Each structure stands twice: as structure tokens, then as C-alpha cells.
Amino acid sequence: MGLQISLSAITDNWRSLAALAPDARPGAVVKADAYGLGAAQIAPALYAAGARDFFVALAGEGRAIRPLLGDDARIFVLSGPLPGNDLTGLIPVLNSAEQFFRDRVTRPKGAFAIQLDTGMNRLGMERAEWAAVRSEALSAVTEAGEGPALVMSHLANADEPEHPSNAAQLAEFRAMTEGVSAPRSLAATGGILLGADYHFDLIRPGIGLYGGLPFAEARAAVRLSLPVIQTRTVAAGESVGYGFHWTAERPSRVATVAAGYADGILRALSGKALRLWAGERACPVIGRVSMDLLTVDVTDLPDIPKSLTLLDERQGVDAVAELAGTIGYEILTSLGPRYPREWV
Ligand SMILES: *Cc1c(COP(=O)(O)O)cnc(C)c1O
Q1: Among residues 88, 177, 208, 299, which is most buried (max CB within 10 A)?
Q2: Residue range 24-56, pLDDT digits in tens
Q3: CATH code for the part of the protein at 2-210
Q4: How far away, in angstroms, is 308 Cα from ligand 1 center?
Q5: pTM for the full predicted model
């Protein structure tokens, strides 16, 4: 019952992605609480599997996992230093000339990484900015006697292998980092799948670790089973739930289960082909998804089980995302805190 998170699926996925880029160091992106699945459990499991390079979005996320990892783990903060951040033991990714020069004043010997914008226009230094910073950045020496920990960029369309921007960003990254001896990184999950040209020195897989597309070979990392609270008989012509969104066409048995849009089962899934599983049998979700509850047509089940399964390898986060008109990333990060969680 509840949300079961398979640490072995996640570490297997990490090893599989690492094997696709044998010449690169395999990092692990654990931002947003490891895509909603629990960074406090997942980051140490990946560390035990051999990961040493972790990526979070915000310094606070890095602070939370710092004590859980060995001293040789590096934790990169993708959004860079923000006002009030304590960056002790973390490596900020500096995204602009302004961030770079301010950081050299506030932490002259602190470890840092540089992000370049190669076309996504979201984060990172553009050509002119980089030209102004480059020689100082590349000759900076940290406490450990090193230069920049990483020079990185991010792809905008890596999940579409045919998109011309992939090759364009690759060419721009090469041009901007020519002669740079610091380690370079360009590929997240999608970029890893684009092939060796995109791998450079370090890869940064996120979604693929957690079983999501575009890593189609991933092992499913989550299983979500919901308790049945009540069942009732509904006569033909009677309706169920808010707005009477569903009306029985035959005498029906309806189960009410404990999860709703407050738990990440998006209301946009109402009236779509979402199913809950009782063993091998699929039962359609009917009526509107409400805040705390879902209603399910269980008429064809011989027995009503204590729980019904919403997510597993048969209906994964991407299948649910497709029904809701979103992406697996959003389904994962929306899974709420009310489910009992178990890491297996
Ligand atoms: C989120 C993120 C990643 C991981 O992306 P996935 O598509 O989940 O593999 C890598 N790099 C950066 C800069 C990111 O923001």
C-alpha cells in the first residue's frame, strides 16, 4: 500500500545510463527531492552504487543531502548562488558574469562550476559574457588547487533526436569550450541517448534514473497502490461524484479510493482512460478526480481487493502523463506527501 520506490531500479537505471557513456563520469540529478521520490534515500543509494557527482537546483536541497554523502561527493547547485545561501561544501554553478565576479569576491577560493548558454536561453553565460569572464574563470585556483569543477551547458530539445538544435548546441558548446581543459558536461538523459558526441567528461541523468522517458529501457522505479475505502452498488441511470460526471449505464459496483488531485493525481485525468489494477484486471477510473478521492468501476471484479494499483510497469508515469496532457517529470514531482512511502 502507498508509494513504493525501488532503489535498486534507480541504481540499475543509473548503471545502464553510465554504460551508454563509458568514457564519461556518471553524475546523478537529484533536484526537487529526487524528482519527488526522496533525495534523502536516493542520493545515498546512488553514492553507494558509485555516484560522486550530484546535481540539485537550490542550495537548500544541497544542504539537506550534504551530511548523507561521503566527503568525496560533489554537490552542484544548478541555479547558482542566491541571496542568503550557505554554500559550504557545495559547488555553485555560476550562470552569469555578474554571478561569477560576485562569487570570486565572496568566496575567493571556493569551488565553482560555469554554465554556458548554447541556445536554450534559460541559464548560463552567452558568448560575449563568457569572453569577458573566460580567462579569469579558467585561471582561478580554488582551495583544493583546482580550476573550475565543470564547464557545462544544457540542451533544449534532447528528447527529439531529429531536432536541428541538438547539433547546433553541440557545435556552439564545442566552439565556446575550445581549449578549455576543465571537465565539460552537456548531456542530461536525452543527451546521453543522442550518442557519444554529446557525452564529454560528465553526464547528468535525471529522469532516466527514475524510470521516465526518453529513457525507454528504464526500469519502472515507482509503484503506487491506493486503499479502497468503501464500495457501493449504483443503479443504471445514477451518477457518481462532483458534477455527476459519470452515469452508470448498467447496475455497477463503484469503489472509492484514497487519493486525489492533492496527491498528484491531476484533475485533468478525469474522464480519461486512467485505470487502476486489481491483480491482472484493469478497472476504469470514473467521474471527476476530487481532492482526496478517486472513484473506480469495479463491477467486473469477482472480489473487491483492499487496494488498487495506479502506477507500476503496466501504467507508468509517462502513460499517466500522456492522459493528462503533460510529461512524466510532472507526474513524478507531483506525487504528494500523503502517501505512506516505502523505499525498497
Ligand atoms: C534537470 C536537469 C538535468 C536532468 O535532466 P533530465 O532530463 O531529467 O535527465 C540535467 N541538467 C540540468 C541543467 C538540469 O536542469
Answers
A1: 208
A2: 999 999 999 999 999 999 999 999 999 999 999
A3: 3.20.20.10
A4: 32
A5: 0.96
